[in-house]
Amino acid sequence: MPFRPRYTGLIERYRSRLPVTDDTKIVSIGEGNTPLIQLNNIPKLLKYKADIYVKYEGLNPTGSFKDRGMTMAVTKAVEDGSSAIICASTGNTSAAAAAYAARAGIKAFVLIPDGKIAMGKLAQALMHGAIVIQIKGNFDDGMALVKQVSKEAPVTIVNSINPFRLQGQKTASFEIIEELGCAPDYHCIPVGNAGNISAHWMGYDEYYSDGIVKSRPVMVGYQASGAAPFLRGHMVDDPETIATAIRIGHPQSWDMAWKLQKESGGWFDECSDDEILAAQKLLTEKEGIFCEPASAISVAGLMRDINSGKIPEGSKIVCTLTGHGLKDPDTAIKQSSTPLITVDAALDAVKLAILDKI
Length: 358
Ligand code: F0G
What we know:
Blueprint: H1 10-13, E1 36-38, H2 41-45, E2 51-56, H3 66-79, E3 84-88, H4 92-104, E4 107-113, H5 119-127, E5 131-135, H6 139-149, E6 156-157, H7 163-169, H8 171-180, E7 186-190, H9 195-209, E8 218-224, H10 229-232, H11 254-264, E9 267-271, H12 273-287, H13 293-307, E10 316-321, H14 329-335, H15 347-357
Parallel strand pairs: 2-10, 3-4, 3-6, 4-5, 7-8, 7-10, 8-9
Antiparallel strand pairs: 1-2
Helix pairs in contact: 3-4, 3-7, 4-5, 7-9, 8-9, 9-11, 12-13
The chain binds ligand F0G.
Ligand F0G binds next to helix 4, helix 9 and helix 13.
């Protein structure tokens, strides 16, 4: 049997492109190297002649793309002598911070909006031993508090304003290019703080500048209608959406995102909660891919942009599915259309239930 080296995470794989040295002690849980899955049934169903791939970031160790940034942020925090990290979060960053802090043997403090994060994410932060501080406010309030408190307490911020986070996250673009053999024509991605779209652009631009690929994709960022500062052209004070991961009104990477939108010739657009949930369901029912609502917005937006002709037929498209569907079981169960059938534990009853549905 041919052997191949054990995969040990994205810092090891992209060492030469990341700010680490030979002496850096890497904190990794094997993040990155996520599958790029070609959609088969949705394009057929919708009669799209386009190559659509999803980068399934839900298959990272804590179930979201945040692990890519967190391996870098925590590695550098430890290298710099920090023994505590802090973040504000809509859930996924807190899960990743908690896990990587556990792995590194340091403390994690996480500020989350009271009652507005998905159950799976809360369970993760608690299980990994983070100190969870629920605030009676939203993510933006939490972010402002984290910035203030980090000036007064010895804690390292691991939100995406920490530059190492985006360095780690840019590796998703490297992986996409390596698998496709080129950059996609379009990259569709959910936007909250706009850190991830910025990181992807950094990755694409790096391979382009180094002559590895001849083009960069058009970047298309989608926001939930109730939390869409990039569409309104200004910050939004009371963001609201079922996609709690992107319930953000004051994006931290505002300038960077506008810059890349112009450089890439891309655009921002918004989707309603209904469109988001419909896309989530389509992916689960037609492709076997379960992502959380915020992630599905990339496919919801793409479908609209293909229908309107904004994204032309024949394009090669990548959508980032940022987080796993299991993160938010409550929203999933509420919108499931498959009825639960309860019968007696008897052959006849089970047979009847099957024959009734066949
Ligand atoms: N998708 C998911 C599943 C997310 O958790 C986030 C952000 C985004 C998309 C948006 O990415 O902020 O880089 O534009 N979640 C952060 C958190 C805010 O705290 O977990 P972005």
